[in-house]
Design a protein that fits this description.
By secondary structure, this protein is mostly helical. The chain has one domain. It is about 70% helix and about 0% strand. The protein contains eight helices and two strands. Strands 1-2 form a two-stranded antiparallel sheet. The longest helix is centred in the first third of the chain and has 26 residues. It is globular, with a radius of gyration of 17 Å.
Length: about 220
């Protein structure tokens, strides 16, 4: 690694102290996304997609470009791909209706609920048990917990999830876990599990759904 564990944690400290109280805003957006994903109407689906798009834009432009780039030049490449993912999510769920959300009670949604709890509750608690306290901790809005949340929300409420939105989150889950493992960020074990399990379940769901076209969707109107 081109940086030490302490340098990595120092980036979180600098980020958290600089952007506060934006962490509260980002977490509020996440909770709003969970709520709206269960509504099943077009406006709610588009808003959820817009929230996910904003989260990935934030991670790319603010975390990677402004903070992580201080210790790792690869952050410029990572940030560019995160911004690309933001555009993909916006295109899929706001411009088009390829990505839609609804209330579901199947096996995939149950897994999604578990992963949501991990991303928003277990992840920060795990960090504290490993003696990483705020501000030296990855808060919601930085890549790893937010990527876990992305998979969680897609699993929990994604009614139609096009395959083309999955490659970047999946590859990041593998790459970031490999780095986190070498740095001892053990809570990121959930990242690789979310990436592998989430991608598998979502691809299986997509194949079963046969990917309906927008005019075929049975979404409720507002």
């Amino acid at each position: 690694m081109p940086f030490s564990t302490q340098q990595f944690l120092d980036v979180f400290a600098s980020y958290n102290e600089t952007v506060f109280p934006m962490q509260v805003v980002l977490l509020t957006l996440a909770l709003l996304g969970i709520h709206l994903a269960a509504n099943g109407d077009r406006a709610s689906s588009k808003t959820v997609a817009a929230i996910l798009s904003f989260l990935w834009l934030w991670m790319g432009a603010f975390y990677h470009f402004l903070f992580f780039s201080r210790i790792n030049d690869a952050a410029w490449v990572f940030g560019a791909f995160f911004i690309l993912q933001s555009a993909i999510l916006f295109f899929a769920g706001v411009v088009r209706e390829d990505l839609t959300f609804d209330r579901r009670t199947d096996r995939t949604s149950v897994v999604g609920t578990i992963v949501i709890v991990y991303a928003l509750v277990v992840y920060p608690i795990a960090g504290m048990t490993l003696d990483r306290w705020y501000p030296y901790s990855p808060t919601f809005g930085v890549p790893c917990p937010t990527t876990i949340f992305t998979f969680a929300l897609l699993l929990r409420g994604g009614r139609t999830v096009p395959f083309y939105i999955l490659p970047i989150p999946f590859l990041w889950s593998l790459l970031a876990f490999a780095a986190a493992y070498s740095l001892g960020i053990w809570e990121d074990v959930g990242l690789v599990i979310a990436g592998l399990l989430g991608t598998s379940l979502l691809l299986n769901q997509s194949s079963q759904h046969k990917y309906k076209l927008p005019h075929q969707l049975d979404l409720k109107e507002n």
